[in-house]
Amino acid sequence: MARNVYEGMFLLDSGKTSGDWNNATKLVHGILERHQAEIIATRPWDERRFAYPIKGHKKGMYLLTYFRAEGPSISKIDNDCRINETVLRQLVLKVEPKLVDQLVAQAMAPHEPPPPGSGEAAREQRTPENGRRRHAE
User: Fold this and answer.
1) Which terminal Cβ of the chain has fewer Cβ within 10 Å, N or C?
2) pTM tops 0.85, yes or no
3) Helix (H, G, I), strand (E, B) or coil at 137
4) What does the alpha-carbon distance between residue 59 and residue 52 come to, in Å, rounded to a whole number?
């Protein structure tokens, strides 16, 4: 059977992984390797607060993984993630063969978290008059 390349985004409970990317990576790799998946690349995505609670949790860690596996093993991987208390959510997508090299190269590139004060949060400020947010000029 053909082995396809898949992209997996795993949302993990940061409390159970203690905010440690190595523990998070080991957990996800263990689930994938149990089903004979070949890990191609893994990248910590981010640790964030949620817009709404997910399974009672208010923040979590996102881990992006590219792996090669046979099609029928994807449902088994999905089931293992559902019964694992540390994995809050997961999304596994098949990668088009022509995009594999580009996406894997991006995932393997050095990753630096964005500096504090960048992005949308830096542009929004609360006004002292009414407590509403407004964009900085």
Assistant:
1) C
2) no
3) coil
4) 9
